[in-house]
# Entry
Amino acid sequence: MPNTFIIIKGQPKALQIERFQMGNNGVYDVKFKSSPRTYHYRYSDVVWLKDAVWHDHLHCKVYIGGREQHNVEDIRSFQHGDKRIGVLHSAMDMCKTTFMAAFKW
# Structure
């Protein structure tokens, strides 16, 4: 999992992005791995989380909607303004899934 995490229009996209940079006029230029085209997103449509803090998944319990999550492979948290956003990576049914949640410490 990368040390940065990118959310576009509310959807996690970090693992799908080949190139990402701040463009002109307050837009981000995004090149996805699946397309030769570069897309442009308004600053307000993008959340770029940086400087990940790694948490040992072997010593943490993760709950989403009151249910404990199993098969957690990786947990990172990112500071975003006055909030800390958590991202976990889980292997379920042989496919990789990324979840986002607000952490409570």
User: Anything to note?
Assistant: DSSP finds no helices and twelve strands in the chain.
